[in-house]
Write a structure and sequence with these properties.
One of its GO terms (cellular component) is cytosol. By secondary structure, the chain is α+β, with helices and mostly antiparallel strands. The protein contains three helices and twelve strands, in the order E-E-E-E-E-E-E-E-E-H-E-H-E-E-H.
Length: 225
């Protein structure tokens, strides 16, 4: 995997674009600390996150007939005779629905012995299958692409021949965009620690998503965000 494909933003934590593990070219695991490791104990942002945003990074598209399925991965239960992790389907993203917020619940996936992280799985799968499972959850489905004979289960960057920004540069630009917007919303706790309301983050995300939709390549340009 030469380029990051997906971005994840756990509530109250920095954006994540690099998977912890890639079991296959079309599946990715993201092990996320339940709380922000840089937050002081007892602060508002030290609570376990209950929601996570998952989105396609600018310049990355899914091939015809596929969508990205999102899972909450939990440890197996020996009491139930399980030997492999459990994958709970949360929803999906794809053409027409390039991002979504998923509820994972505080401390989800961290109940097993030694399991300190919440693990989110992203898998590129058949669009009709993902849409069908999303419909059963009652969530909005991504536009199902017509099945074709494209590369099965692969993600194809737009204009692959064009040189893409490095992972570090792309992450810095996303963080800069968020920082510039959220800095005006900061307030101080009794301990003089600066905090940002969750509502402000949600407002930034709406504006950021709108910008990605109208100008998908804006993060690839070296200009002011």
């Amino acid at each position: 995997m030469s380029q990051p494909l997906f971005g994840l933003v756990p509530a109250g934590q920095p954006v994540i674009i690099t998977p912890t593990e890639a079991p296959s070219p079309t599946s990715f695991l993201y092990a996320i600390p339940p709380t922000n490791p840089n937050s002081p104990p007892g602060s508002a942002i030290s609570k376990p996150f209950g929601h996570v945003v998952v989105f396609l990074l600018p310049g990355v598209v899914l091939p015809p007939g596929t969508a990205a399925a999102i899972y909450l991965v939990t440890p197996p239960s020996p009491a139930l005779g399980q030997t492999t992790p459990n994958f709970k389907f949360l929803g999906g993203i794809g053409p027409g629905k390039e991002s979504a917020i998923f509820k994972v619940g505080p401390g989800a996936g961290t109940t097993g012995p030694g399991s300190k992280n919440v693990v989110i799985g992203v898998s590129v799968e058949d669009a009709e299958s993902v849409a069908s499972r999303m419909a059963s959850l009652g969530t909005t489905t991504p536009a199902a692409a017509t099945s074709g004979n494209g590369t099965e289960g692969a993600l194809v960057p737009v204009s692959a021949e064009r040189q893409q920004p490095s992972t570090l540069v792309l992450a810095q630009r996303i963080i800069k965009n968020a920082f510039n917007f959220l800095s005006s919303y900061t307030g101080s706790t009794p301990g003089q620690m600066e905090v940002v309301p969750l509502k402000a983050f949600e407002e930034w995300w709406k504006k950021f998503e709108s910008k990605v939709r109208t100008d998908p390549g804006f993060l690839e340009r070296d200009d002011d965000q």
